[in-house]
Design goal:
Blueprint lengths: L19 H21 L8 E7 L8 E7 L37 H21 L10 H28 L1 H13 L21 H23 L4 H39 L4 H6 L5 H16 L8 H8 L20 E6 L2 E6 L4 H26 L34 H11 L3 H10 L30 E2 L2
Antiparallel strand pairs: 1-2, 1-5, 3-4
Helix pairs in contact: 1-3, 1-4, 2-3, 2-4, 3-4, 3-6, 5-6, 5-8, 5-10, 6-10
The structure holds fe (ii) ion (2 copies).
Length: 470
């Protein structure tokens, strides 16, 4: 069951050949997907050979095959993690009952909405990143960008499969709509606002993959707990792909910081102006990018108090990330404190699940910061990078539109407006970062603002030609 059948038009491990109707429906959607990729995917690299990994099984060990592929020929397909025998629902009011192999009628529209919302983010991120290839800092980075892009395309396939297989005509219509909405489109934007923010430079890409893909990881983890077993299995395999996206973010930012520290040492200064004059990204500017993307990604978890999340949990549709780590899986009796501008408010834990998820997400975000700060400390500098307070720059929840600084202090509106660009990139900062974005494509060479990675991809040398440009 773990093997993937590549002899069919749509590679899959769900025995698609034995469900002719579904196979036909998906084969009809396939050209629309390829059309979308051609129009909205990475611009201008269709003829390049890219050293990509493709899934060959869903085993934890050795699921990937590596080789040179032209992106439009990538074998996007449908890969579910292996079924767990006799899987039981692990949380909510139906805990202990058998997991569902079909969608219960009463949850149909809610479940469809959850799948569509997740599915919408996947092509959105490809659209956001479509121009980045032109300003890559190295072939290594260019390849990583394209790897992420094709996998987000595959994640769209993962959700479209569920829509087609389990939601009939409504599902097929939703699958069409997933290709009709576009990131930043005035008339038909993507569903979630973070996915309408353009990702125009590589600093933003590394922050996006560090913070926003990590939100994706936490959403997938909570959907992997779902009582709806096909959704759980799909998400479990998607998580194995997602890990690489966050690796790109963490190592990307780490390499930027490493290079900055080298320049600081060379010039014996921490003066941002001199560091910029030397073509590196000063650490206060790195902090501004972290503040911007972290606060934007925090909104993706929704309001602290949410009756929708409570209902989704109670009915078994969406659990908490790593549900097994908790002791209470029903949450009908526990209360927790929520931080609001009016003080700590006690609410039923069931209604505060978004906040619970946000907290575990932030713990995961801290890991990279600790590592970067150790490098900064070892280089002998006092500055430390931090995550902004969860109160900062929120556009949803109890701190919505509050004039709060990144440390969480409430300020006057006037002071907040005046100082905002001390905390997030100003137009001038962005223009500076844009000026650094010059494409570097000689094998093994890196742009001057970023250090080389520690190792190449799949044990290849750093100067391997990861993308053969045509
Ligand atoms: Fe994804
Ligand atoms: Fe991702």
């Amino acid at each position: 069951m773990t093997g993937i059948n590549y002899s069919e038009k749509i590679p899959n491990n769900v025995d698609l050949a034995n469900d002719r109707k579904l196979q036909r429906a998906l084969e009809q959607w396939q050209p629309s997907f390829l059309g979308w990729w051609g129009e909205m995917g990475p611009s201008d690299f269709a003829q390049s050979d890219v050293y990509l990994r493709t899934a060959i099984s869903v085993d934890a060990q050795g699921w990937a095959h590596y080789g040179a592929v032209k992106m439009p020929e990538y074998r996007w397909g449908i890969f579910l993690a292996d079924a767990v025998a006799d899987r039981k629902i692990g949380f909510g009011d139906q805990m202990g009952a058998a997991a569902w192999q079909q969608v219960p009628g009463e949850y149909r529209s809610t479940l469809r909405r959850l799948i569509v919302t997740q599915g919408d983010t996947e092509p959105a991120s490809v659209e956001q990143q479509r121009l980045l290839g032109h300003t890559c800092p190295s072939l290594y980075d260019l390849r990583n960008l394209f790897q992420i892009n094709v996998e987000e395309g595959r994640h769209l396939w993962a959700m479209v499969y569920l829509l087609h297989a389990y939601f009939g005509r409504d599902g097929r219509e939703e699958a069409e709509e997933l290709l009709a909405r576009h990131s930043g489109d005035r008339d038909k934007p993507r569903i979630l606002s973070t996915f309408n923010e353009p990702v125009q430079d590589w600093m933003s890409l590394y922050c996006f993959t560090y913070f926003t893909d990590r939100d994706g990881k936490y959403q997938l983890k909570s959907l992997a707990e779902s009582a709806f077993d096909p959704l759980s299995r799909t998400c479990r395999f998607m998580l194995t792909e997602e890990a690489h996206h966050m690796f790109v973010g963490e190592t990307g930012l780490g390499r930027v910081i490493k290079r900055t520290l080298e320049v600081m040492k060379e010039l014996a200064t921490d003066d941002p102006a001199r560091i910029r004059a030397h073509g590196a990204v000063d650490l206060p500017l790195v902090q501004k990018y972290l503040n911007f993307w972290c606060s934007s990604s925090l909104d993706l978890f929704g309001s602290e108090i949410s009756s929708n999340s409570a209902a989704n949990f109670a009915s078994g549709l969406k659990g908490r990330p790593d549900e097994a780590q908790y002791t209470d899986h029903v949450l009908r009796e526990t209360m927790i404190g929520i931080d609001t501008p009016g003080g700590v408010q006690q609410v039923p834990a069931l209604n505060a699940l978004n906040e619970t998820m946000r907290e575990s997400y932030l713990k995961d975000c801290e890991i990279g910061l600790k590592r970067w700060n150790r490098t900064i400390e070892r280089a002998g500098h006092a500055i430390r990078l931090t995550l902004p307070s969860t109160r900062f720059r929120r556009s949803i929840g109890s701190w919505v539109n509050q004039p709060v600084d990144p440390q969480g202090n409430l300020l006057s509106r006037e002071e907040y407006d005046r100082r905002l660009h001390e905390w997030i990139p100003s137009d001038e900062d962005r223009a500076y970062v844009r000026s650094l974005m010059q494409r570097v494509v000689a094998p093994g060479k890196m742009a001057g603002w970023i250090a080389a990675p520690d190792r190449g991809i799949n044990n290849l040398a750093l100067d391997y030609e990861y993308v053969r440009l045509q």
